[in-house]
Amino acid sequence: MRLFLVLLGACSAPHDVVITEPPVGTLGPNHSPTYHQNIAPLLAKHCIGCHTASGSAPFALDNQVDAEHWAALSLAAIDAGRMPPWMPDPECRDLQDARLIGADDVALLRDWIAADMPAGAAVEASPPPAPPDFEPTHVLNATGGYLSTAVDEDEYRCFVLDHPFPTDAYLRGSTATPGTEQVHHILVYAIGESQLSGVFAAESADPEPGFTCFGGPFGDDNPDDLVAVLPPQIAAWVPGNSPAVTAADTAIRVSAGSRIVVQVHYSSVGGTPTPDEDTTVSLWLQDEPTDFLAESTPLPIFDLTIGAGQSNATFTQEFVNYGQEPIELVAMAGHMHLLGTSISAWIHRADGTDECGLSIPAWDFSWQESYRFTEPLMVDPADRIDVTCSFDNSAGESVVNWGDRTLDEMCIIYVVKRAPWTPTPNPDAAICAGADACTDCDGPVDCGLSCDGASGACSLCTLDALSECSIDACGARWLPTLPCLEDCVINAVTFSGTVGDCVRDQCSDSAYEELASCLDDTIAPGGACEGALDACPP
């Protein structure tokens, strides 16, 4: 009993919206629901994705005896909004595969219990709706027999899969299968070649399979690179979710040289630890590119300072589409650690209207997944996404900041963009390739920061190359633009547009132009930064 209550508490995701849909089955001759006609189909529809003898839930609901035994407590969990586990606010927007139970089905369960749970006439059960399915091209063992240490507290373990990518591959479908009862959720990342050294170092330093990790797939020593800290998730599994399958014309590109890292959450209330021989990741990969690419990118709030004893620390940051084209979003996911209480993403349009992208009013770290929209969400030029996270550190005795460790915090909304296929960027190309052809810019520094043909990496390189050598000459001009520059670099690298366009909007044209002009002077012959931009060749 205690195990049941612990797990119900861990899965809390209150949602007070009443869902109206036809009840399952037809009523018995006395106008009372029966197990075979009503309750068995109801449980098949809403519960037995997890609640089977071999499932991830702590008890089964796939037979009459267990259904009767757990009926009252199941109804209490449903009434409290804890079951089925579903974190997003249903009023925000329509999502695929929503685990929401309708008011009529709840009434059926309540009436069945009140009628002393009649069995009714046995009938051949109708199978539940089949989830999306695919024929995997690769089934990869993830854990190599690792024996979890999750006895008194949960454990987060990362494993590098033995599957190199010598060329680009295109992911059409994915799912994961837990190997033990302790596996609570699985996150799958594609780590680019330039960030793999830290992953391999963490793996080599640990004598057991894999290595300890928590907030991401890099272990205790995150790389300093902005993009590397936030690698794309290409798949995920939590109890009850369905395999992810893309549309026929869409795929996720896994770039050549990447490796897959799998983070497994082992729960301390999931049973006695046993060697995990069987956790697998199933992938449907193809060599041929599709017409469209789906790409997961993070929208982070790095500037987190959560005071000791602070009960409601709330942070918001905006991400603006400074590009020239609409951005099509097909899914979102949230990520915080253990102090998180809520997370949301709202679209504020240039015409003054607002639209909810994702709202999770009661955050639970144990139930992280990607939420796919039933209809695409378009973010037009000049529209913005406001990311908001709230935290409760009322029991904490120290300040908490952004970081990857268990007692640090994060605030990230992952957005999945869908866009026409483009060739993979040439890794050997000059970091500012295209900037020299830019005509709509004023001087070499502005071209590195504002040219549409240059990448976000070019902007980062330009600022990094000039930041120290120009302090004496341009320090007074750096200061007014520095807060904007920090936010705008994140906006350009993770979402859309250029650093220059963003700074002009969020600071002022004059402050940015004065800084760019001063920096141009420093790179002129005899200037303090002469030759510094050689590190950022066009």
Keywords:
4 domains; Jelly Rolls; elongated; 5-stranded antiparallel sheet; 24% strand; 538 residues; alpha+beta; 9-stranded mixed sheet
Describe this structure in words.
The chain is an alpha+beta fold and 538 residues long. The chain has 4 domains: 113 residues, no CATH class; 160 residues, Jelly Rolls; 126 residues, Sandwich (Jelly Rolls); 101 residues, no CATH class. 24% of the residues lie in helices and 24% in strands. The chain is built from 12 helices and 20 strands. The strands form 4 sheets. Strands 1, 3, 7, 8, 10, 11, 14, 17 and 20 form a 9-stranded mixed β-sheet that branches. A 5-stranded antiparallel β-sheet has the order 5-2-9-4-6, with helices on one face. A 4-stranded antiparallel β-sheet has the order 13-18-15-16, with no helix packed on it. β15 and β16 form a beta hairpin. α8 crosses α9 and α11 crosses α12. The longest helix has 24 residues. It starts with a helix and ends in a 15-residue tail after the last helix.
